[in-house]
Fold this protein.
Amino acid sequence: MTKTTNQYPVGEKVILPNGNEAPLSKAYRNNDLLFLSGALPFEADGSISDKDIEHQTSLCLEQLEQTLKLEGLARTDLIKLTIWLTDKSDFVGFNLSYVQFFGQHRPARSTVRSELMLPGALVEIEAVAAY
């Protein structure tokens, strides 16, 4: 049996703050699913935001939305998100920005507390979307 797949990386190369190329794709399509790499709260100048959790959450969600648009998808095509917060006391503020972004759309979600790889980041958001 021959398996037919539609697989490819999405987006331009990911460049780290130190200028090195990251060994990952912004997203990867596999048939009818798009797997989006973790979005971190980068400001327009490429620095990690030093603002509050609400702002950082909005930055992450906006980055995911930009990646979705590369494939003609929208935020309502997101079906699963995984969230990492560095401080559980940020959960309420995170949820405020999350609900504002999604409105009535309610994708499946897991949220955990964990240290993140980039200092200053309070949140990282990974997602899966369906075509």
User: Anything to note?
Assistant: The chain has a mean pLDDT of 95. The helical segments are 53-70, 91-102.
